[in-house]
Amino acid sequence: MTGLHSLSELMMRRSDDQLVVSGLFGDVGVVQFRKDVAVLAAVLRESPCQRWALCLRDSYHFAVAFLATAHANCELILPGNLQPNALKEISGGFEGLLEDGPLSAEFVHSITEAHISLPLKKEHPPIPLPFQALDLNQIILTLYTSGSTGTPTPIQKPLALLDAEIQVLETLWGDVLAGTCLAGTVSHQHIYGLLFRILWPLCASRPFERRIREHPEQVMDHGGENSTLISSPALLKRLDPTGSPTPFRAVFSSGGALPFSVSQQGENLLKTTPIEVFGSTETGGIAFRRATTAQIPWSLFPPIKMKCNTAGNLCLRSPFIPGDEWMETADRCRPLSERTFLLEGRSDRIVKIEEKRISLTEVEHHVQALKWISEAVAVSLEQSNRQAVCAIIVLSEAGHQKIKELGRGRFWILLRTELRRSVDPVGIPRRYRVVDHIPLNPQGKHSLAELKRLFLDQPPSTSTNEKNPLKLKPTLLAQEADESQIRLTLRIDADITYFEGHFTQFQLLPGVTQIDWAVEYGREFLDTPPIFKGMEVIKFFKPITPGNLVELTLQWDAEKQKLKFAYCSEAGKHSSGRILLAPPE
Q1: Alpha helices in 420-490 (DSSP H)
Q2: Is the pLDDT higher at 5 or at 347?
């Protein structure tokens, strides 16, 4: 661990000639970083607020805010995301807010009177504070996790626990990463991105990029032997398998297990097998693996001990968890040795169907065990005033062949017949959706809202006369929002149903579809009224064609009850207008 500094003495130990951030979005050295942290710490010391929410998109600004808050002896609050409704929900947990532009001033003032924008204005800066060693046991970081209910739950950790984990990471992979710059596709608002993208490189004197790479193209266009990628299954699954390889020194993935096929694709495209990290906000890192075969087990981080309880749940004793007691998780596992195990899903996804307790995890396990299915996620939906299990599935090659052989209707009957061997009849999925990839959020977690929307947007896929499932939405790649405006980055996939027949020689997205999407996304993100009343000044400038990457901007005027929309891309503006909406009478 040569050259590794503790978070406690980081600001005093880093060499002046080193870079803190580098790469695509500019370089900043240690001297400027030390000055920025010292000045902000002095500002925070002058404030009566003790609990500060860090809401910064730029990773350099975030690193400045993180260290400054710690050196001002204040408590650090990390919201799980920067969406206005999410921040409102946890606003009672902080007194002040640090931001760098993603939130509107009006919204910030509505939830807190104390806020500071980065970079700081240069007029009348306070006298910087001299740095002293931090007592990491006394500085508290609060992170938020949605848990199984979707309600943000605060998880508090002294910085000493994160410092201990950084030392283990450097022990395991410090030699591999030596001399590299860290690029990331995951947010620093979560513990994985915080540790791997920000704190570990800071302590190990490695530069990191100041902005995340949101799109697969950004990953494949900029790599190299001196780059390390901190990513997730959500992005690695979206890499174009036909693209030219781009080498990375190392690739990390966390947020969910990678399918073996994706690990193999990573080896082909990125010239290294991704290192998968298993952990959670509550536990920190637990284990890791590199899937060189389909059944590679997980190996515990060196200082962690494990056992399984009578229910088969993984229990841990770890220096990354407060206290010295065993912590029970909801992860089911099968130990292979004292330090290796296989994961077998979660134990806490239980639903009641016709008075019977059904494990969605167990349903997924049995669906995925069928040779025709490569991935599956089960959800519980209310249909005709009763709960039912539904499944989103990714077909294997054998599955595609079987559908061609039997037809879709007989294929669904075959699935149900096979599942009756192992699943309670009320737990057998009543409806299915076939997708190319299971929808995931940027942290690699299943997006429950997106999964359920698949069943709302499409007719039931159980008819013996059904056609291929419809694709009615573009792929949502990124979003930035405040109370009245949102910007969505959309990939206009070529297999969207609305391209069919419009037109044969030159496919383009119908204008009515663009308006319909604007209305739907307005309801979802801005909570606009549901009743369509008309349109104003609708204009179409340039066609939107298959494969386009476009930005949809939506702005809601509550007083006038009008939704303003605009589709733009690198080619310019495609369309714009105003839509009149009203609440139900």
Answers
A1: 448-457
A2: 5
